[in-house]
Amino acid sequence: MKGPAFYPLSLILIVLVAALVPLSIPWRALGGGLLLALWLAGLAGVGRQAAGYLPGHALLFLGLGLVGAEAALYAWLVVPPLSLALELVRKRGKRYLGAVVYGILWLDLFACLHQLVAVGRGLSGSSLWAWSAGIGAVGLGFVALGIARLVGSPGGAHEPGPGTG
After folding, report:
1. Which of 84, 112, 123, 158 has the smallest number of CB atoms closer than 10 Å to its CB?
2. CB-CB contact of 94 with 124 (8 Å)
3. What is the C-alpha separation between 11 and 20, in angstroms, rounded?
4. Which uninterrupted H or E stretch holds 114?
């Protein structure tokens, strides 16, 4: 699934993000620590799939720190643990619990993305309303389809079944 360079390059990315994000030392340590915990879980084989999301999680943390979206940084703190929790719940075959974790995780990610763009672009007035409505509609649709997919099939529908392409 991942090439042999994935884990070393991900570790370098974690260190760079923790060093470059313009936040206080406790924020850097907390964000870097959460990313490092996800990296270690992937390395140990417990959260291999969740570790695949590490580059995106790290870059989102960096982006939120760069634009100064402090409220979204608080929301981001649950992303790495929820990514790992989703994988662990799905491995145990808990479809409904997995759907709840999936919904929380992705709604949180869409909220962070909303703040990243809204704060980064300085949106206000009608442009903020339009952006909020658009990301809200896309986010809710994405989460609803994902939950339906997870709940509707026996294996969580992560990989296509036989004969489905």
Report:
1. 158
2. no
3. 14
4. helix 95-121
Single-letter residue type at 41? A
Instruction: State the residue range of the domain holding 37.
Output: 6-152
- Six-digit token string for 49: 């799939």
As for how many domains the chain has, the answer is: 1
Please provide the average confidence, as pLDDT, over all residues in the chain. 90
Residue 153 CA to residue 114 CA, distance in Å, equals 30
Within a domain: 98: yes
What 3-state class would DSSP assign to 128? helix
The verdict on residue 1 lying in a domain is no
The stretches in the chain having pLDDT less than 50 are 159-165
Q: Token pair of 79, please?
A: 């992303």
Residue 151, helix vs strand vs coil: helix
pLDDT tens sequence across 42-63: 888 888 898 899 999 999 999 9
CA 116 to chain centre: 13
Q: How far apart are CA 51 and CA 111, in angstroms?
A: 21
Of residues 44, 49, 164, the one with CA closest to residue 98: 49
Domain presence at residue 112: yes
Is residue 138 included in any domain, yes or no? yes
